Amino acid sequence: MIFVQDHERKMAVTLKTDSGTVSPTRAVVATLVGLVSAHWILVAVSLLVTRALYKRYASPLRKYPGPFLASFSRLWKVFSTASGRTHLQHIELHRKYGPVVRIAPNEVSLASPEAARLLLSAGKGFHKTDFYGVFPPPENPDIFTETREDVHAQKKRVANVPYSMAAMQQLSPFINDTIELFMRKIDEHRAANVGAGPKGKVFDLGAYLHYFAFDVLGEVAFSRSFGFLAEGRDVDNAIKTIDQSQAYNGIVGQIPEVDFLLRRNPIRQFIPGMSTKNALITRMALEEMANRRPFDKENAGLLRSGDGRRDLMASLIQGHLKNPERFAEGDVFAVAHGAM
To answer: Which 3 state secondary structure label does DSSP give 131?
Structure first.
């Protein structure tokens, strides 16, 4: 049995066993538990300070210069990413400190073309970090977010097919239709504002180029347009949703563990409107997969009510049929979704 008593405001521990002897191990453990329970805030702060001091002064990267905050915390990267000026700040850091700059406790930035060729080449022992695990869908990484080199190579072999020159030539008539629609929109705006001068409506070329790109991707991936150009707007706020998601990915990706408290929190699925399945791109990818079921070699993944073109979805389904174990249905969805 264990008895803990407080005598004259001092922590005293009296331990007795059934045989009447005192266990030194239990005495030490009980004392530590008592101290931590009574001063847990101080203990937590002490651990954080000790960890920060170790990372700054005892880490193997301590010899490399960089921002003070970055030497013991990833918060510098979080603030830098949130500012939207990371690319400019990195240039400034390299101008100040040289080709190697410490930008996190366990991370450096290298300003070297030779290093880039080495680090970004497959099979060199440098792997993607947990940063990529924040990008959806986490259960089925696409080519960009896949961190396993062998799996990445397998997915790339399948996904490269629809982007080949032959595939693009087969799809070029449909891309040309989108180009013609884009030019008509410009002509219609010009005709409507002839002689209007400063009072004429502004044509946001940047926005329409965005609409054009998404409609082309819709034709290439799913054999149908998203309708951005036709309506002259961001349909279902799809582009806005993607931009917001990318902002989240960039910031939270600096501290991936936080994602489990936010977007990957299981409670989100019970909150109306919080499910990612409601987004236009996700919904369209899921609908296209449903429209082409059952997946069989006879249909070859083609859209049954379509014009017979071999789009991205069809190529991915064919890749799945050839090797369902290495390229599952979840991979079909992930790569098609990631193409957007």
So the answer is: helix
Tokens of 157: 């072999």
pLDDT attached to residue 8 = 43
User: How far is 128 from 140, CA to CA, in rounded Å?
Assistant: 16
The DSSP-derived string for 3-72 is EEEEETTEEEEEE--TTS---HHHHHHHHHHHHHHHSHHHHHHHHHHHHHHHHHHTSTTTTS---TGGGT
* Segments in the chain below pLDDT 50: 1-15
Residue in the structure block whose two tokens are 């924040």:
134
Helix (H) or strand (E) holding 113: helix 113-119
Count the alpha carbons within 13 Å of 29 in the hemisphere toward its beta carbon: 8
pLDDT tens digits for range 96-106: 999 999 999 99
Exposed e or buried b per residue across 232-256, where buried means at least 16 C-beta atoms within 10 angstroms of its C-beta: bebbbebbebbeebeebbbbbbbbb
Phi, psi dihedral angles at 305 (to 5 degrees): -100, 15
At 28-38, the pLDDT tens digits run: 777 777 776 77
8 A C-beta contact, residue 313 and residue 336: yes
Confirm if 147 and 160 have CB atoms less than 8 A apart.
Answer: no
Distance CA 184, CA 254 (A): 43
In whole angstroms, what is the distance from residue 55 CA to residue 60 CA? 9
The H or E element containing residue 335 is: helix 329-338
- Please state the pTM of the whole predicted model: 0.77
Give the distance between the most distant pair of CA atoms in the chain.
Answer: 105
137/164 Cα distance (integer angstroms): 25
Which H helix or E strand runs over 103? strand 100-104
- 21 Rama sector, left if φ>0, alpha if ψ -120 to 50, beta otherwise: beta
